[in-house]
Amino acid sequence: MKLIKSLVAASIAVSCSVFALDARYEDRSGNLVADVPTEKSEWQDPSTLIFAYTPVEDPAVYADVWSEFLAHMEKTTGKNVRFFPVQSNAAQIEAMRSGRLHVAGFNTGSTPLAVNCAGFAPFTMMAAEDGSFGYEMEIITHPDSGINSVEELKGKNLAFTSQTSNSGFKAPSAILAAEYAMHPEKDFTPAFSGAHDNSILGVAHRDYDAAAVANSVLNRMLSRDVVNDENVTSIYKSQTFPTTAYGMAHNLHPELQEKIMQSFFTFDWSGSKLKEEFERNGESQFIPITYQEHWEVIRTIDTANDVSYSCS
Question: In terms of DSSP H, where are the helices of 13-123?
């Protein structure tokens, strides 16, 4: 929390243009998200909806996890729904920007870029039964690394996931610089694994000395015995961040958008594969969110890292 408070003042001075939507989108409501086009001819009403979950090491596992939910979405929307396994955050963003992806869960750090560059309109995320939500960034290492504190990362290699990831890159970069005056190349050697599960496995197998990861992914891997808790240890835990944002392309037909939202908020989690997987993080429902409010802390971290949401 100390880091975020110290960055808020700096973020206030940043021009709102840093967070402006790409020129192809229009924010008439002032909520930082692209609105439905005013021209009905621009509304999309596909016969098949394409859904993608944030990139993971084994997409086949999550195709099965989401299968019951997607069947529910088919009934609610009257559309065919297909699971699309994405290989990277960039590929997922480009798929929505080009109109090939309609409904998605974008990870915390890539959500702002998806909003600004792909017309992503988030409206929900997973939460516990009591409405609490979120995850923490943890820096993990293996027991024989000789690293017992953040300061002892000096001279070691530290794995990040990708530059669009909040807990896998942006938050740890800001924290290491602001709280420990530590910088890549100068104080430690950075590496990029591509995904949180890759980083976690890399630490467990001693390919990396340490890694910055989302503990929601770590907890799921531990509970499935993909890694053993004797092979990883945590040396830092951050404040709580919002988790994966779920939403849709801004230019879908408004009636279809309503049905998609309905499919999330009417899904019965009890006994489902979705609950079996995500209750490992204590999550058991979808709750309404707004990008403007719930992603404010992420935009603040991006400001500290001099990140702009310009689209190439």
Answer: 59-65, 67-77, 89-97, 111-118
